[in-house]
Design goal:
Oligomer: single chain
Structural class: alpha+beta
Number of helices: 36
Strand order of the largest sheet: 11-10-9-12-13-15-14-16-17
Largest sheet: 9 strands, mixed
Number of strands: 28
Shape: globular
Amino acid sequence: MDITTQKRNAKKFIEEWKDRGREKQDSQSFWLSLLRNVLGIENPENFIKFEEKVKLSHDSFIDGYIDQTHVMIEQKGSNKDLDKAIKQSDGSLLTPFQQAQRYSAALPYSRRPRWIVTCNFKEFRVYDMEHPNSEPVKIELKDLDKNYYQLEFLVDKSNEHLEREKQVSLSAGELVGKIYDELLKQYKDPDNEHSQKSINQLCVRIVFCLYAEDAGIFGKKNMFHDYLEDFDARQTRKALINLFKVLDTKIEDRDPYLADDDPKLAEFPYVNGGMFSDEDIEIPSFTDELRDLLLSRASDEFDWSEISPTIFGAVFESTLNPETRRQGGMHYTSVENIHKVIDPLFLNNLKNELNEIKKTKQPATLKKKATAFQEKLANLTFFDPACGSGNFLTETYLQLRRLENDAIKLIYPNPSLDVGQAKDIIKVSIQQFYGIEINDFAVSVAKTALWIAESQMLEETKDIFYADWDFLPLKTYTNIHEGNALRMDWNKVIPNYACHYIMGNPPFVGYDWMTLDQKQDMKLFFKKTGRLDFVVAWYMKSSEYIQEQPIHCAFVSTNSITQGIQVPSFFPQLIRKGFRINFAYKTFVWNNEAKSKASVHCVIIGFSFSNYNKKKIIFDESGNPKIVRDISPYLIEGDNTIVKSSFRPLESNVPRLILGNMPKDGGGFLIDKKEYDEIKEKDPIALKYIHRYMMGREFINNIPRYCFWLVNADPTDIRKSSFLRRHVEKVRRYRLSSKAASTRKLADTPTLFAQIIPSGENYIAIPKVSSQRRRYIPIGYINSNVIPGDKLFVIPKAGLYEFGILTSNIHMAWVKVVAGRLKSDYSYTSTVVYNTFPWPTPTDKQKEEIEKTAQAILNARALYPDSSLADLYDPLTMPKELLKAHQDNDRAVMEAYGLPIKGTTESDAVALLFKMYEKLTKKEK
């Protein structure tokens, strides 16, 4: 349900219930109506429980309980005061809240409410039981159309802080999308580049006007609405053209007779800032529907002053971006995720500094320190070289201004007496914020978002002084530049000696998805780009810019750059330039979609030139911080040791790991279940050549799959079998059609897989990809009759000792750090993971113990013959016998490494393995 509908329904709800309210007769219909019509629950009778029995010294009944959100409701009649105690059936006197508390205490812990709501039809009181001594939120029925959002915790368990700004901003984005769609229909040539740029610019102007009239920037409410209302649909186009020209003209330069000709138009102030300077934009004709949408839905029924410029800027841009519109849903970066970057980068330190200042007792010293702090804020500079719609810059501006307002209250203890001009009191400016963005429309949105943020913060400062300062004309100019940041000289945007912080989330583009231009950009920094993600170019560019400067940086990045082959591909270059990691967030899901919730697995890396930060912090997946000595490129505690790929094991006594058989057949060798059954019935010749075939998925999930294996096959058999002839011909045609000469050459031998590993042996098999949910990668044996495909690694002739080491927690610790990932799943490789893994040097007794515990793992699996490895290694269903066998094996392997059984953490194991790796690689040299 969109915000406009909710507001309309809330008004109807107020009218329906303003003179009603009998406790017994009306309670259930009151709550069902609220949940259905105002909060959007389709079947509220299945959502809320009424009159649920609770056992006290006698049977009592809870008026309402919502299991999903843990809400208890105590309802009273409209004639009852929620503050007064009411006599209970046992003679005690309790307020409605105390009554609900007594019910709560009688419930099992798992069902005790997070929220208690008391209500008398005229007022809601909301008690947060996480803070039971805090004052309740009070919501009056008559104000429900303005404050209904404060009840959304009833239906949304994640909405604990009542995210008003977010909901308003997303609904604003929906409105912009509707306006855009209707405008686009009116353009003569909507695909024309000028028309595309014009509609985007027109939407920016309309949004600014809608915001300006609601926020009072134009001087009074509804000015934009009241001006347009005088014109019908046919006249609206001309009315907008005239308005935009007036908004871009200084008062003294306007037609002196304008007030006589059009007094409403003459009242509009001069805006400045370039918002309305382009008179060449194409504005189409309006329809009645479009005019009504603009005046009624977007102006009358919506309050734009409450949007969050941080969220709305990104929502606005993605709403009007053709690419994101095709994908569906509005893109925005949550404020929470932005703070994962800016808090440890600078904001936490600034907040701590201000808190220390507030402890100062002597008024004169307090004022001096607060003034110095404000000056410090006003001299900081922030740069986002991939700023998009400016959400990082906008949120940072808002946070700095809020800190400044706190400082202003310390500097001016008697604000009503100290009032001056805004320019004399406010020091922090959007001039301190710099950005580069390649998309021209995003540049316009970023500037607008910063202006809106500036307007909102001016209002907060005005409230301190009870002042009446005008926001217009725009006196500050944003430093947002259009261009390709990787090809621009950043020093021309802001000299590096003047920059303090760099931040943002550069484009998430994997190698396979890069455009030709992006690949050319990569070549500016790398002779060989390999499989590197696009984001690494931004690290390289930043590392050049920050040389010898105390600039602190933080980027959101795809997690792949801290895993697998990408680490040795570019981190050594950064380290040679003096690159040092100051803080890092390990892999987490970066949600940046309002609707479709598409997500990327990301890390955050805070860095600088040399060790300007002595205190390093690693945040785990849950955001818990840990102070460490150093942070390695793998985002673990440790130095800059980097694991480089190796084409053979670093130790000579370690068996080779090889990739399974590669078919390159276009599916020609594979047989589905239907054909397999037909062959069994009709073709005994073809049946001789059918083998079980396994890729990683079949191995883990025990899925039957088959292929033809024609090594040393009798040519006569192939000619006699129609099944074999058909499949071999399919392989031949597929290979001949390839663009690769090497594949076309393989058409000469269409009976054979493209690459064949030694056969006639049992193998240890390791899947290339497996879920990170599992405590252990499912590793096991397959017999020589099974054909392993190229999504399995195999070790021929491997024994129980090798199996025990590879299925241990020590090996898993290595995998977690150095393996690549597909999203969050482990991507196992021979070159980076297996060949580089440091093996122990066990005594004969230790080796024998590992073989024994390894066999125990196989025995435990054998107790469940019908279970796949996926079943056995699911954390929810792993049998206790198997878990114990693994724990025994882990202990045996740890002893072989010389690690204490008690007290050793995964970090300790990784630190040991990296030391062993360094010794092995020194030997290699």
